[in-house]
Write a structure and sequence with these properties.
about 240 residues; alpha+beta; globular
Length: about 240
Amino acid sequence: MSAGQRALNARDALIALVNNAEHSFDAFEGMPAAAASRKAAVLILFGVLDSLPSRHDAQDAAVSQDLDVLLLARASTLRSHAGQVAFPGGRVDPEDDSVVAAALREAREETGLDPAGVEVLGELPEVPLAFSRHMVTPVIGWWRHPTAVGVVDEAESSHVFRVPVADLLNPANRGTTVLRRDGHEWRGPGFITRHAGDEHLVWGFTAMLLDAVFESLGWTEQWDAARVLPFEPPVG
């Protein structure tokens, strides 16, 4: 199977995911929602973009070595979510026509992409984030016409990068993150990514969402959940 055919199979798999998400995407079902939560959206943008494809041969036939997903690292000077790796996205503003419009607007503002080059495949069910009082809609996209991306505002983001999906699926790059605070402990999935000589740890909501998407697609490869990934927890 050619890399191009595998990419098309990945797109078809993503379309099937959003078309059946009401029944098959239940990773966040039952999570508590805060009263008067604000609507937000993130763009999970896949495509075949990277000039440096993964060296890992994914087990699922739909995942080619050059299948990518777009991520960014937030600036370390931000008051909230400083330094965290995230999907482009943010709150839905009153002038946004929809959560899709909000996701594309935020992606343009944060990465410089041209929304006209993005094919929106659909939406996943809202995910409640009680601690930040948001209801987040994940919007699944596919590059119709790729455009350049990069840091638009250094006060908001420090890196914008495309990560080979096969690298994220590689069990060698997976583990569990542990956050201890105020006598409580939270455990969640983590992914190690590398870009331009820098190593980034994907954790928290973004890692949970990636993990849920991969699991729902059947792309997940067996990884060691007992492996704890070291990281510096955010302050505050």
